[in-house]
């Protein structure tokens, strides 16, 4: 095994049967912070409907790898494609790509001055161009899916950590992305919610 060419930080563990259609493909992804190279030639293929878990110790590059998938971090080199469309390179419409790749952040990144519903509707209104009523209807369905319909008018400061994380999940799912990235997806959830 070549130590300068990794499959992924830790070992990705496919959880569903392999299919032939590749949805997300990373080839030769490299990323460094200063002199510390955290991603060294990462190759990863995720098939349609496949779940891949990237495991590794703190600081091994798991979050950086996810953030490179939707270009919140710019890889130093390598290519990423989504259903064959380039994610990396010049001229890529990042808003279009990010609409197709949903992400739930480790710190949730909810807007503290917006209610749960408004946190979920923001992308629907700004990116998808829906009017307020239509966006709120979609948001209510998404919040219901994560068991928070009754908290739609609550602000993040009024929610537990697990509830905030579920709002972040609802926000990511409401745009119906092709790929979902979860950075520490169950860290703040109650045990009964993890199983759901």
Describe the protein in words.
Helix content is 30%, strand content 22%. It has 196 residues and is α+β, with helices and mostly antiparallel strands. A four-stranded antiparallel β-sheet has the order 3-2-5-6, covered by helices on one side. It is globular. It starts with 12 loop residues before the first strand and ends with a helix. The relative contact order is 0.14.
List the helices and strands and how they pair.
Layout (H helix, E strand, L loop, with lengths): L12 E2 L7 E12 L2 E12 L4 E2 L8 H8 L7 E6 L2 E2 L7 H7 E4 L11 H11 L5 H14 L15 H13 L5 E4 L8 H5 L1
Helix pairs in contact: 3-4, 3-5, 4-5
Tally of helical runs: 6
Structural class: alpha+beta
Which residue ranges are poorly predicted, with pLDDT under 50 across at least 5 consecutive positions? 1-7, 11-16
Query: Strand order, biggest sheet?
Result: 3-2-5-6
Share in β-strands: 15-25%
Helix content: 25-40%
What radius of gyration results from the CA coordinates? 17 Å
Specify the biggest β-sheet.
4 strands, antiparallel
Shape verdict: globular
Distance between the termini: 38 Å
Secondary-structure element series: EEEEHEEHEHHHEH
Mean pLDDT: 86
Quick structural gist:
By secondary structure, the protein is α+β, with helices and mostly antiparallel strands. The chain is 30% helix and 22% strand.
Question: How would you describe this structure in keywords?
Answer:
four-stranded antiparallel beta sheet; 22% strand; globular; alpha+beta; 8 strands; single chain; disordered N terminus; 6 helices; 196 residues; two-stranded antiparallel sheet
């Amino acid at each position: 095994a070549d130590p300068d060419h990794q499959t992924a930080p830790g070992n990705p563990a496919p959880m569903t049967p392999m299919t032939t259609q590749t949805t997300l493909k990373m080839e030769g992804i490299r990323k460094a912070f200063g002199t510390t190279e955290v991603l060294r030639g990462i190759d990863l293929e995720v098939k349609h409907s496949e779940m891949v878990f990237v495991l590794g110790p703190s600081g091994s590059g798991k979050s950086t790898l996810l953030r490179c998938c939707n270009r919140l971090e710019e890889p130093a080199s390598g290519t990423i494609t989504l259903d064959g469309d380039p994610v990396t390179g010049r001229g890529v419409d990042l808003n279009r790509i990010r609409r197709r790749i949903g992400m739930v952040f480790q710190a949730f990144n909810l807007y503290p001055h917006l209610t749960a519903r408004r946190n979920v509707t923001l992308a629907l209104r700004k990116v998808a161009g829906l009017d307020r009523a239509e966006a709120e209807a979609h948001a209510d369905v998404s919040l219901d899916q994560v068991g928070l319909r009754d908290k739609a008018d609550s602000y993040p400061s009024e929610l537990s950590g697990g509830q905030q994380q579920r709002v972040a999940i609802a926000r990511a799912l409401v745009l119906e992305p092709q790929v979902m990235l979860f950075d520490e997806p169950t860290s703040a959830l109650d045990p009964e919610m993890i199983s759901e």
